[in-house]
Amino acid sequence: MRIAICDDNIADRRHAERLLKRESDRVHSLGEESYVIDCYGNTGKLYPMADTYDIFLIDMVDDPEENGMHIARALRERGIPSPIILCSSRIDYRALSAETDTNFFYLSKPCETEPLIQMLRQAEQHIVHREGRIELRTDGETIYVSPEDILYATPAEYGFLTVAVKGREPVRIMSDAFSLFKQIQGMKKDPAILAISGRAFINARALQSTGFLSVTMEDGRKLSVAPSFALAGNLREARNFRRKMDQ
Description:
8 helices; alpha/beta; 33% helix; CATH 2.40.50.1020; elongated; five-stranded parallel beta sheet; Rossmann fold; single chain
């Protein structure tokens, strides 16, 4: 889940970031997807990246021409449907709102852990997913791909994942194979997407051949298959799927 904090009070911005990172670590320890959190002190850099975020936390008070409610409405005008949490400090956004948008939420400052996480959980229920597309966010760009175009995913250095994508060079994202696999299967269960270990998965559509506890992909990359996953039948399923394609 990707969260943007837009707040012109640097102390409040950092405080919210700390609370969210702590919650991200907690949910990740339970096997759930961790959060990607970006902070902005103005809208100049936020707007170009806005369509990459699932949830916004906003409080801008220093510019009377561009307070938090102005920014929330501007995001809607740009076609951004993601939930927006307006954090009230000097401005009472509830009083300003004449909105019927159910994806506007309101939180009073100072932000405290329990109310913030409760509000985050409410907002999560209203996340608008891009139908049929997976977001892959690298250091320099964000791309959206069909799950069928993901050929395989293998671990890079700690906290990062290398994802091979059809028609382009592999990309390096801040995630893990379990989270990406869960995201793909949560959209639509795909029998071709198969885990080959606790840290990697493949798309059997891109399978070239199989060996003893290994697979070779169309790009020539040879990947190891963990014995427990082979015993569970994943290697056999990959081989059978590819054979059916070739018939």
